[in-house]
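Record type: monomer structure entry
Structure origin: computed from sequence
Chain ID: A
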Amino acid sequence: MKLKTKSLLMVGFFMLLFLGLLLTTIRPILLEDAIKLDETNIQRELDTLNNQLISTMGIIKRTNLDWSVWDDTYLYIKGDYPEYPEVNLQKATFENTMLNFMIYLDDNNQLVHQVGYNHENKEFLVLGQEFYKEYLPIVQSKDNEKTHLITTEYGLTVTSFEPVYLSSGEGLSAGTLIVGMIINEQFMEELGKRINIQLTLKEVNKPFSTRTKVDVLNDQKIKGSLFLKDYSENKVYEISYVNKRNYFIQKRSGVNQLSVYIFLTSITTVLLILFLLNRFIVSRIGNLSIQLKHIQDNKEIRLRVFSNDRNRDELSDLENSINAMLESLEKKHNEIVSLAYYDPLTMLPNRYYLNEEFHKLVEKNQQKVAILFLDLDGFKRINDSLGHEIGDRLLFSVSDRIAPLISKREGIFSRFGGDEFVIVVNYSLIEDLKKLVQDILIEAGKENKLKTYKTFVTASIGVSVYRQDGTSLNELLQKADIAMYEAKRKGKNQSCFYQDLEIASEYKNILELENDLKFALSMKQLEIHYQPIVCSVDHSILGVEALVRWNHPSKGMISPALFIPIAEETGLMPAIGEWVLKESIKQISSLHSIGFKNLVLSVNVSKTQMKDKSFIYKLDEILTQYNYPPSKLQIEITESVIDSYLNEIQDFSNALKKRDIMVALDDFGVGTSSLLFIKELPIDVIKIDRNFIKNVPKDSFDTILLSGIFEVITALNLDVVVEGIEQEEQVNYIASQYTTRLQGFYFSRPLPFSILLEKYFTIT
């Protein structure tokens, strides 16, 4: 074999080895960023979609708030304005508010009026007579002033519930106003137009572990999904869209072209190397391979391979070509990064840029940094009335005037989404910061010339200060957002510092209570009040429930709902609970000694006490100390805490039963697993929550429900106590139907022991 052939084979072998190394090392690195950018882009659009849904729910809630505090609505429900539907519930009303239905309920949750509207054919929609009843459980629950996703016969809806009051805020609620929007194909189409994507909605059976999901379908397409649960949590919906993998396709095409270019260049280089082959060429190739490996290991396309200009040959050309390739890739990479980190409309940084640059700005300015959360007042009105194009021009016009104020301070002016902007700036004095905020308000309020229109908007700004209001960006943004809404609440076109909010005084009050509670027991500020439990037949007293009260020396009586959670969190509950148990047994034992031996004492125990294994032995000591019969003691367990500590409560309840102490399930029906708890725990007594009795007997639904509860409980041979009795008609109805025990303000409010003794247990 000739040397020329051998040289050709040797050079060809090494050149092929080099090309393989180049393509196998650089190609994955180049495509990796594109893959991540596609996924990031999809995730960002999912976040935008989620924010749009949240915004829609907020709009519906605000619309409901506007109508529910309108005097005409109040008068209509009260029956004083019968012309209300004809005057106000026109097609234009639904077109302007984008609502699909409005339901008016009186203060007894009876239907006053319901009306629906189909936006697709612009005609009123006839709602079924039973339609409003789908919402009654929510109206009667603690979620009756929120906005929920609810599945109805018309599909998934966004529904808001608000009590109806006079605009002055005086008087009681006249009833409830329920408004909603149906999430259908038309809604998806409109929502998709807002964010420039085509959306589909479908019901899915599988549960989801994350709210969003990104799936790569193939080399060309990628899918994003947003999962929603309705209020009942029985149905799951998926909003999805499919997009092209633009970054991946573009990068792969570039890499393929680059591969062809490198291959052709290498063939030319091989022919030239046949004439110039020497020991220096091989070493240079090896050096080049090492440099490329270094680029791969560091995954840094800004690095360049070394080129020796003194040896102008094919290999140096290859080195320069590789550098040109890397430079081209770096340029494309920078362009892609720009798309990922800057808002395409205003060319301002977006929230992703803000997340990465925030801490750099904090370190640079020695932590003297403030967050300004800016929201344009009246933007939605202009955007809806004049169109999105004018709205976009308005956003650009306002941001263009504000940007120079921020650039002077080397701060960050970013568009957060919609008409919201976030500004991060340094400051020397707080007065200087307030001056900047005022200048921004002035610039935002100037006239905007948009094509043939001249319009004005104002801004509301919330301000949070680094260190003072938080150290993380999310915490500062949250507090600046709260302050911004306070500025809007006060009339808009103004600013508000988070530190100036009145909520700070509420926090201070809680801290004071926490400190005072540490000494409340030793200072004898805690009291026990007793509420009688009577027989439904003759109203004789069968027992009493012990309720702890805090008589604060300066703040007066403090609600247990406020200080009990504080006691739980600070570890004071075991001492307070033991004192309540000991003192109540001592006092009721004195009543047993004067002849009232059948009187039963009911005592509530906290979750801390039930989890404490030593508590049961302390109870034994107290019963022995006062010679109190265990069968006349009833321990009440609140249903709401059982689900989280079921195993511990089972052990605790079984220990009570071994001692012949009765176990009562308090607030029955307010939780999610009431019947399961009856099965799992050794319950003696069921205390029916007041929410099941407050509308009996005037409300047929509540009356039937109460009857069903009694039938189930009595069939299980369990005793019943009906709580929350406040009206004579409730007493008469229950007494006529059942022989049970009653408790409520109708018979007596909780009383101190001295008054209880004087009023009910005086021996004549």
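Annotation 1: The first helix runs from residue 3 to 68.
Annotation 2: The mean pLDDT is 85.
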